[in-house]
Amino acid sequence: MRWLAVIAVLAVLCGCQLGYYRQAIGGHWSLMAKREPVDEVLADPATPDTLARQLRVSQQVLRYAGDHLDLPADHVYRQYVPLQREAVVWNVLAAPRYSLTPKTWCYLMVGCVSYRGYFHREAADKQAGRLAEQGLDTWVGGAIAYSTLGWFDDPLTTPMLDRSEPALAELLIHELLHRKLYIKNDTRFNESLATLVARLGAQAYVTDTGMALPADYWARRDAVHQAFLMLVRGARDQLAALYASGLPEAQMAGRKTAIQQQLRDDFAARRRQLPALEAYQRFFDGPLNNAQLNGVSDYNGWVPAFRALWQQCHGQWPTFWQQVETLAALPAEARRVRLQGLITANDE
Q: How far apart are CA 263 and CA 268, in angstroms?
């Protein structure tokens, strides 16, 4: 019945949108058609031990998320799809050459978002190329998971499982959050909330299951991530000031290139001080343009606000969820002001 509903929606779309939806539905359907129940994969003696362990961990995380985090973990990630590729989908991001305001794409059922997803890298690259010809900064990033927001029973895939147990817990909880709460037209709210909930939930899971980790495990991860964010934030601040300066385009182009090169140099210097930053090398090998830098902000921009809210709620999930739902019900501008207020109050 859900597929019939989707087809009915497609019937009223314009031709350009129809082409995009066709590849999206085709890619998703291809994925869903290859699903195998996790229980059957685990029962198969040919299943590699490493895969079996990760599948068992995934099911344990789902049970924990449903029982302790009030996340909708039933009937999702109970099936597995083997994939011989590094990503499930590839997202195209774009922004004007001299602006940090992201380009958005709008869809009937999910509203407007700041990315456009493709199941084939070639299709994503072609779309990015077309946008670049229009004078936009573009970037294509692989995503190891995606959520259908509860419309379908999303499966586990090989790229999702190819990580440590704490990282797998973070990933699954992040995706489950999108099934619990999703606001149309507010990518930064949705992704930042998922980033924080995933970290808090994974930390709770690790503690409550007695997983053996080094005492400074989370502190070291946070230190590296914060170093990365500081580098990106510094460059974005410089670019924002440049774009507001009113300089002639030729001068602006030269200064933009200099800021991007300085970001690469700063990363190289910081990496010598903090070798674990090597995990972000591929990011800094990218164009470091407006589109790529915007992606970092979407997933992290409101994390400090949600962390402050979590602290106000004294770490109690029921209270936190109530406050998040109150925020979600606000008009967009009022929500933005409230989130910024949480950050400001926490800094004072």
A: 9
From CA 105, how far away is CA 113, in angstroms rounded? 6
Answer whether residue 286 shows pLDDT above 90: yes
pLDDT of residue 147: 80
How much helix, strand and coil, in percent to the nearest 5, is found in the chain?
65, 10, 25
Share of the chain above pLDDT 70, in %: 94
Q: Which amino acid is at 284?
A: F
d(CA 136, CA 93): 10
Written as six digits, the tokens of 248 are 């002639």
Whole-number Å distance between alpha carbons of 15 and 21: 10
pTM here? Answer: 0.90
| Beta-strand pair 136-143/105-107 | unpaired
The burial of 45, by beta-carbon neighbours within 10 Å (0-12 exposed, 13-18 middle, 19 or more buried), is given as: exposed
Distance in angstroms (rounded) separating the CA atoms of residues 205 and 23: 37
In total, the chain counts a number of residues equal to 348
Strands 156-157 and 79-81: parallel
* Residue 247: C-alpha distances to residues 99, 108, 135, 253, 257 (Å): 13, 39, 18, 10, 14
Tokens of 33: 């058609």
The mean per-residue pLDDT over the stretch 294-313 comes to 95
Compute the distance between CA of residue 209 and CA of residue 224 in angstroms, rounded to an integer: 25
**Bridge partner list, 96:** 136
User: Amino acid letter at 129?
Assistant: G
> What SS3 class is residue 38?
helix
Q: What is the pLDDT of residue 80?
A: 96
Query: pLDDT value at position 347?
Result: 75
Q: Which residues pair with 198 in a beta bridge?
A: none
Q: Say if residue 79's pLDDT is above 80.
A: yes
- The residues facing 331 across adjacent strands are none
Burial 49-60 (b: 16+ CB within 10 A, else e): eebeebbebbbe
SS3 for 1?
A: coil
Q: Where are the alpha helices (DSSP H) in 35-109?
A: 38-43, 49-68
